[in-house]
Amino acid sequence: MGRIPPPDPVPELVALTAPPGGEPPITITALAHREPLLGPFLGWAAALALEGALPKRDHEILALRAAHNCGSAFEWTEHSAFARAAGLTDHEIECLASGADPGWTRREQLLVTAADELHRDTTIGPATWQALTEVATIDELVEAVYVVGQYTMLSMVANVAEGT
């Protein structure tokens, strides 16, 4: 058990976030201590993950790069599985951690760069933004910033919950 134990009792909504035969994510278990925030957050997270403008592959590239940049083993492990389901290979996933280029498309390389700039500078630089506007819609770009922000936040929560 990490620094943040499950609340007692655990809200029913938390159990619904567990994968079949698994435990609820530690980030959701931690948030369950503030039950008024739990439902709205889960609605937001579901909309971002399930109704987004970005293709799932792009979403997971951004999520994994954010998890890597934040040093979150929990988010990295969780999103590695989601990334495989979205079509990323194990080699591509490894490259998101190492920084190597497995042959990303121009768009994918720009998304990795944007995630790195957001982590380092809390913004996307003008040259990267301009290049992104040539390969993505404004809807996708706005969402990309939110995806990186979401998984940066969740990585922080996971790191605190795990005591890392």
Question: Could you describe the 3D structure shown?
Answer:
It is built from 9 helices and no strands. It has 2 domains: 39 residues, no CATH class; 107 residues, AhpD-like. 68% of the residues lie in helices and 0% in strands.
In short:
Helices cover 68% and strands 0% of the residues.
What would you call the structural class? mainly alpha
Order of SSEs: HHHHHHHHH
**CATH architectural designation of the largest domain:** Up-down Bundle
Mean model confidence by pLDDT: 96
Cα(first) to Cα(last) distance is: 12 Å
Number of domains: 2
Helical content stands at: 55-70%
Which of globular, elongated, flat, extended, rod-shaped describes the shape?
globular
CATH class of the largest domain: Mainly Alpha
How many DSSP H or I helices? 9
Strand content: under 5%
- Low-confidence segments, ≥5 residues, pLDDT <50? none
> What's the story with the biggest beta sheet?
none
CATH topology of the largest domain: AhpD-like
The CATH homologous superfamily of the largest domain is called AhpD-like
Round the Cα radius of gyration to an integer and report it: 16 Å
Number of strands: 0
What's the layout of helices and strands?
Elements: H1 12-15, H2 26-31, H3 35-50, H4 56-70, H5 73-85, H6 90-98, H7 106-121, H8 126-133, H9 138-162
Helix pairs in contact: 4-5, 4-7, 4-9, 7-8, 7-9
List the main descriptive attributes of the protein structure presented here.
164 residues; mainly alpha; AhpD-like; 68% helix; globular
